[in-house]
Structures are given as structure tokens and as C-alpha cells.
């Protein structure tokens, strides 16, 4: 059933009490899809994410001739690997606004010794960084007729050897080279000329490549730590407790967000091999001062609830997020100001001074799922003490990028809290 647009968020009037199975990690799913396609033999991904971004990746690989079978009901994707071969030499690929698909597929097709690929995407993709990756691939013999989307790429295989890339605008530029380079004719020695936008994602790439070097027939995808950030924050807003059976693993840098919410006042107990997260409603919510460079996808979550914290919050290390789905720094400042907050914005930081929240605000999401989910959590706060909606989310369907059922999960948790 389609969501209302704008979508009024109904506050929780009772403390949360619920269990949520997290969607699979987008970052791991899309890396595993590339590596499974490059592997020899068949790989089954379990716990895989089914969202807009992962579907774009699957469609792109299928366009290139890879045989992929997906079963959404069991969260499994079966990929028939081709041992480093790109089956089709000429193709048109649309990556939408999926950064991982855009960067990873661009590098992947360069394994073909004589291919021509027309790469296109949404209008927003034309503003997202890819030029440094194309420069690096040019060093390997490829040729692109533009350094931004859309472009046509002629390939000549990856011969290996020295190559340089500036990954300061996005770590995905480096990850793309690492993934495709795992099947280069000779080892690819990458000279990194700029500090990667988020180094934990590069470490994730290296570790997933290492895991695939052992030729797994089945690969289990971890629950999405980025998606967990919203629901981990919910008990701070509503009181109560929440449990995630599949919040574990160590591949994802965004697991560090747990440190942030524990500082604010989230408590953690272990129970039956899973973690239970709970917060006592009368506990002071401590303000945050944190550098988010290593786990920047989560900064919006804490920024959105900063009006509820007991003092100013300062978020740093976020300049590179200005070139993600949208300018996340300016966008977040703009929406918080609409809500009546005092915000000091610099190139690399936001300082948020809590003020009384304004009602009747429609949150602009800029086609960015993280705005929708972050402010969706804030809207669960019972601002007027009567359970009345005071905040609405525009284009809530944008959550389809990584967490298609987010608002359904939120409503289910609200209903469960009433009856628990």
C-alpha cells in the first residue's frame, strides 16, 4: 500500500517494546554481488538486502550477461560467477542514484578487453564524484568521453601495475578499483592521493575480497548497521526497549554509532545471544560532540534528535557528505532551522543548539532516504503529550533505497508498544 505523501508521523504514547529483524547491509550486499559475479562457480548470498540500490546492482549485472536468481521471500540471491569474464561487450547501464552501483560497475566493465558501455543515471548522479575513478581507469587503457554521468566507456582490460586515485570525495572510488582489481591481469598497485572519504568502507571492501578468496559457496550478509542506527535511537525518543536478532558482525564501520547513543543514555544488555537495547525515560539525554568521518552515514540520525538533547550537539568530519545523495550538511541545517533550532554550519561541521520545536513542519527529504528515516524517528517524540502528529515526511518512499519497509516497521513498533 503506497505511503501518504507527505506522511504524518504518529508519535509513540507508550515506551517502545519490540523485536526487529534488520534488512541486510546494502554495502555488503553490493560488494558481495560484484565478487560473486567475478568468482568461479555459483555463490548464494543469504540475508541479502532487497532495496532500490541492490536491485539496480542486480539489474546492471544481468545487463552485462550474468545469470542471477533472486528470491525476496527468503532474502537469497544466487549468482553464477564467470571467473573474471564480463559476458557482454556492449551494453547500456542505468545506475539511478546508486553510488555503489555507479562506481563498482564502472570499474567492473573495464575487465573486458574490448567493450563499449553507455553509463547513465538520475540527474543527481551527474553531480556525484566519479572523475577520479575514470582517470585511474584511463591509466589502465580505458577511455571515457566525459568525467561525469552520463558517459560512454571504452575498455581495454585491466593490465594491473601502478594506478592513482583521489578517494577524498568518496571511498567508493577506491573500493571500485579494489573489487575489479582483484581480477586484473597482474596485481593492481593503487596510489591513494587523497584521504578516503570513509576508511572503514575501504577496510570492509578488503575484508569481503579476502572472504571471497576462500571461494565460499554460501555467503551470509550482516544486518545493516546503518539501518540499525535509526531504531537504536528510537528508545532515546520514546523510552522502552528494542532488540535486534541480527545486529552483529564486524565488517561495518557504522557499528560505531552504538558508542554515540550509549553516550547519550542508551543502555545495553545481552540476552539469549542477542542484544537488548533499552533506555530509562527519566535519564538525561546527554549532548554529543563527535567526529563522524569514519561512520558519516549515521550523523543525520543524531542530528535529527539533537533538539531533544540536554545541550548543544557538535558534529564534525562531514564535509564529504556534501557530495552524496544530496548536500547532507546544508540539507540537515535547513530542516532543523525549519523546526525552530539554532544551527551553526561550517564546511565540515554542524553545531545544533536545542530550541523549542515547531509544529506543523513538513520535512524535505531531497530524494535522500537518510533524511526520511532520521526525521521519522524525531517525529515519534510525543511533542504535545497527546499523541498528535506534529511533523510530516515528504517523499517517504525514498526509503526504498535501503530500507523499503522502514515506516511500516515504525508503525508496527508503535502498535506493539500500545498493546505490550
**For the record, what is the CATH homologous superfamily label of the largest domain?**
Enolpyruvate transferase domain
N- and C-termini, Cα separation? 26 Å
Helix content: 25-40%
Alpha-carbon Rg, integer: 22 Å
Mean pLDDT level: 95
Structural class: alpha/beta
Q: Outline, from the CA principal axes?
A: globular
Number of helices: 12
Can you name the CATH architecture of the largest domain? Answer: Alpha-beta prism
Number of domains: 2
Order of the strands making up the biggest sheet: 2-13-15-14
3D architecture notes:
With about 425 residues, the chain is α/β, with parallel strands linked by helices. The protein has two domains: about 210 residues, UDP-n-acetylglucosamine1-carboxyvinyl-transferase, Chain; about 200 residues, UDP-n-acetylglucosamine1-carboxyvinyl-transferase, Chain (Alpha-beta prism), CATH 3.65.10. The protein is about 30% helix and about 25% strand. It contains twelve helices and 21 strands. The strands form six sheets. A four-stranded mixed β-sheet has the order 2-13-15-14. A hairpin with a 6-residue loop joins strand 8 and strand 9. Helix 1 packs parallel to helix 3, helix 4 runs parallel beside helix 5 and helix 7 packs parallel to helix 11. The longest helix has 14 residues. It starts with 6 loop residues before the first strand and ends with a helix.
